[in-house]
Amino acid sequence: MTRATARAHPNIALVKYWGKRDAALNLPATGSMSMTLDVFPTTTTVTVEPGRDRDELVLGGVVQQGVPRERVERFLDLVRTASGSSARARVETENTVPSAAGLASSASGFAALAGAAAAAYGLDLDERALSRLARQGSGSASRSIISGFAVWHAGDDDASSFAEAVPAPELAMVVAMVDRREKSVSSREAMRRTVDTSPFYPAWITSTARSLEDALAAAAAGDVERLGGITETNALRMHALIQSCDPPIRYLSPVSVEIFDRVVALRAEGVAAFATADAGPNVVVICRPADAATVAAAIDDLADTVTSLPGPGMQVLDRVPA
Ligand code: PMV
């Protein structure tokens, strides 16, 4: 029996991943860029138990059946193939962020699972290989392997689609917890519907590829205003795209939209603040660390807020036998 524990944090994309080019390998249609948070970690322990007849998933102390367990089993199959093992495992995971509420629990979850499973099955993977592995669990998880700011290259194939660190200015993210409930349409289903039905999807791909180039240049130059502007525009384009599906999907709630408006008002007062949101109603405001308290105070009547600085990449905490 071997056991390993790993921890990873969610990441929030400044330039979003929305749409797969290859669903089997989780290759994205475009590259994306993110900041890994220093809040809401997921901690996962994988115990390889040769006598077991199927993989078990325990999430927050509750044994899971159905799709969540099957997703983990399919992911562990990749690790088993790479390590030459057929042994099943018990996976215990603790999230500190509400699951499936558009706060990237799948990113921290599959990044922590990739690290713990690779260590438990005895695979010695470097950061790039871990990012590729995590990507196959959930696309955005490829970026949670990396500390601070990351670019996930779209790549041409499995080997070239991974995340790596990029330079960026000092930024904080103020997370506004608008709604902690599970979202009604998963990002997986919504992405599929977007690719299949949105007339705007081709324009999203070309404009996002351009936004990513611009965002990387702005980040390297330390230009917070330019990077923030690209972030907000890209987020609103993604939500417009999602709303253009048939049948339509809308993740932003009236409160989310009000927070976007408050952020515009903050800018009019001279505060460099920019809003983004993933596939859910929660909004994340990007600003300089010195402005984070001002930003939080401007929206805390609408939602609870949690402020984050750039956080660490995936860490293996423990391996037995070592
Ligand atoms: O990795 P997934 O399948 O949970 O998709 C994440 C999609 C967004 O969070 C909306 C955007 C992103 O780049 O993280």
Give structural attributes:
322 residues, alpha+beta, Ribosomal Protein S5, domain 2, Alpha-Beta Plaits, 2 domains, six-stranded mixed beta sheet, four-stranded antiparallel beta sheet, 9 helices, globular, binds (3R)-3-hydroxy-3-methyl-5-(phosphonooxy)pentanoic acid
Structural class: alpha+beta
Strand content: 15-25%
Flag low-confidence runs.
none
Write out the distinct hetero groups bound to the structure.
(3R)-3-hydroxy-3-methyl-5-(phosphonooxy)pentanoic acid
Number of domains: 2
Characterise this structure.
- With 322 residues, the protein is α+β, with helices and mostly antiparallel strands.
- The protein has two domains: 2-168, Ribosomal Protein S5, domain 2, CATH 3.30.230; 172-308, GHMP kinase, C-terminal domain (Alpha-Beta Plaits, 2-Layer Sandwich), CATH 3.30.70.
- The chain is built from nine helices and 16 strands.
- The chain has a six-stranded mixed beta sheet with strand order 8-7-9-6-1-16. A four-stranded antiparallel beta sheet has the order 2-5-10-11. Strands 13-14-12-15 form a four-stranded antiparallel beta sheet.
- Helix 2 packs across helix 3 (127-137) and helix 6 runs antiparallel to helix 7 (224-243).
- The radius of gyration is 19 Å and the shape is globular.
- The mean pLDDT is 95.
- The structure holds (3R)-3-hydroxy-3-methyl-5-(phosphonooxy)pentanoic acid (PMV).
- Residues 13, 16-18, 32, 104, 106-107, 138-140, 187-188, 278-279 line the site of (3R)-3-hydroxy-3-methyl-5-(phosphonooxy)pentanoic acid.
